[in-house]
Structure formats: structure tokens, C-alpha cells
Amino acid sequence: MKAGVKLKKKTFLWTGYDKRNIKTNGIIEAINIDLAKAQVERNGFKVLKIKKQPLELFPQRIKSEEVTLFSRQLATMSQAGVPIIRALDTIMESSNNKSFKKLLIQIKQSVESGNYFSDTLRNHPKYFDKLFCSLCAVGEESGTLDVMLDRVASHRESLHTIKKKVKKALTYPAMVIGVAILVTWILLNYAVPAFANIFISSGTPLPKITKITIDLSEFSQKYWWVLVSFIIVFIVGFKFSKKRYPKINVWQDYLLLKLPVIGKVIQKSSLARFARTLETTSAAGMPLLDALTTVANATGNTKYEKATLFIRDEVSKGRSMLYAASETGAFPGMMLQMISVGEESGQIEEMLANIAKIYEEDVDVLVTNLSSALEPVIMIVLGCIVGFLVVSMYIPMFKLGEAL
């Protein structure tokens, strides 16, 4: 074997008994099946059956919610005095996501090899952000990993709640548009053609509104695939462009902020995330410049990310955070006043927590109001569409009745 060649590990599924003679199963990574079996037995299990994991054509995606639940489970077990390795095993056994189990195996093997838990997490930036890794590093250095894991879990749960509210606000209008398009398509492709055949065969002159409806129906029946293809190409092209050209993300974020109601939801959620993340990092004792860098990545909007980085740069020059924040023009006066009071009283963490709570409640109210306001809008929009089509079809029928 050539020096320096690293053998690729494979994934194996095993079934066996633990030290209490309870049947269990798991997943492990090793170079070959013999080493995999030996490793499982070294961990105190009696192996009954072990096999290579079948190739997954469509591997399960690891969702952000699963990482949030993982942080809470790990925090709870750490506070109860359960070692990290044992905690990882327990979480692994309770998970049904094979991709997530594989990730936990990699983390466990790295920690067992003597690496720091925080350094191991940094090798998986797709799932563990800078804040998660930084707080775990602070916890390992100070011997308060259980406390820091609890802060990470609480922080992720707060952000997850905000994300759900914003997603709800954006999903509802999309559903309205989708329902309107679906109803229109069904009427144009199935209801209108049935009436159109009757009108055309009668030879009666058709009103302009009916001609427009029949033309739309014929176009929809002949070229529906063009519209569907255009939508698919647009969505795929837009996603590809977002990855290739970062300016498109900037444009999208600024555009969303200008939308009525939805823009307010996004703005207040970004402010809540700014305050909540800064409060968490400050409570953990993270240096302000490092904390602001972490906060910038957590705001969820380019405008506030740039504003936070501007604050960081100004603070590094010796200016106060309050002065720098007021210069950006991105933060409302009430928030600046509360930060000022917090800095003067030495209770900045409590004040940031209050700011986050205020904006989180505002987001909740806005989303609730949006849902309530859209219900009559849905009825009006669908009523107008259906009404237009019904009227355009019934006018010729009345004329046919008069002719008879």
C-alpha cells in the first residue's frame, strides 16, 4: 500500500445485545466489516448480525429542526451528567434519519479519537453554525459545556420559532395564488370547452367577454406545457443564479423588505434574531467583535447582515455600538434607545432579551393578522375569477334561450 493513501470508510448496519442483554441496533463506519464488528464489540455490544449499508439513491435530508432537537437533547443529557459519547449513542438510537445517524457516527468517532467536540462540529458547517461551535468551544474551555449547550438549544429554539412564523407568512399568499391558478386552469380546460362547443355549433354571435374566455381556454389547452415548462425553467434558473451570483440574494432580500405586511414580518424577525443572538453571545462571554460577526450570519437578511458588519467595523475603530447602529439607519429608534439604556445601566443582556421578546411578539401578531386579512381576499379573488368565467358562459345561453 502506498504511503499517504487514506482508505475510504464504509457504513455498516448492525444488530446485537448491550451489556444489559437488551436487543439493540446501530450504524457504524469502518474500513471493512471485520473492523466494524470489532469496533462495535469494543464498545460493549455483542454482535448478532452486521452488514454493509445499502446504497441510498435518495438519501434523507438533515433538517434544521433535527439539529435543533439534537442540541436540546444533548443539553438535557449533559446537564444530567451523561457523557458526550453516551449521549450521542442515545440520540443515535432514537433517530430514524439514516443521514443524521451517519453524521452522529462521524462526530462520535472524532470525539473518541481525542478531538474537541467544538472542533468536530466545525468540520460540519452545513449543520452547525459558527455560534453553535463557538459556544461549545467556550463551554469546553471553561468547563461549562452543559450550560453552553443549554444556551445553544434555547437560542436555536427561539430562532426556529421565528422562522416558522415567517414561513407561515410567506406560504399563505403563495397558497392563495396557487389555488386561484388551479381553479382557473380547471375551469378553462374542462368547463369552458363544454359550453364553447354548444355556442359554436349554434352559430349565434358571441359577446366579446365570451370570445375572450374561449380564446383563453383554447390557448390553455394547446400551450399549457409551455407555461409549465416556463415556470420550471424560471424556478431552476433562479435557484442556480442565486448560488452563482450573490447579488441576486441581495436584491431578493431588499425586495422582500419592501413588500406590504410581509416586509414588516421579515424586518421584525431580523431584528429579533439580531437581538436574540447578540444576547446569547454576550451572556456566553464572547468578545464583542466575534459576537457581531456571528450575529451578522444569523440575521437572515442581507440588509441587516451588512448593517451588523458595519457596526463591527466601527466598534473595532473604538466607536460605541450605539453610535454605529444609529449610523446604519437599519434599526428603529425604540431599539436604539433600549440598547442605550442597557449600555448605561450595565444590563445590556437583559435589554437585548427584552428587545427580542418585543419583536418576536410583533411577528406573531403580524402573522396572525395577515392570516385573518387574507381569508376575505381569497374569497374575493376566487369569486372574481369564477364570476367572470360563469358570466361569460351564461350570457350566450340567455341569448340562445331568447332565440328559441
Structure description:
The chain is mainly alpha-helical. It has 3 domains: 10-52; 64-157, Receptor-associated Protein; 162-182 and 225-404, Receptor-associated Protein (Up-down Bundle), CATH 1.20.81.30. Helix content is 75%, strand content 6%. Strands 2-1-3 form a 3-stranded antiparallel beta sheet. Strand 1 and strand 2 (23-30) form a beta hairpin. It is flat, with a radius of gyration of 29 Å. The termini are far apart. 27% of the residues are buried.
Could you write a compact summary of the structure shown?
This protein is mostly helical and 404 residues long.
- Secondary structure: helix percent: over 70%
SSE sequence, one letter per element: EEHEHHHHHHHHHHHHHH
Mean pLDDT: 83
Strand content: 5-15%
Q: Any low-confidence stretches, pLDDT <50, length ≥5?
A: none
CATH class of the largest domain: Mainly Alpha
Biggest sheet architecture = 3 strands, antiparallel
Tell the overall outline. flat
Domains, number: 3
Using DSSP, what is the number of strands? 3
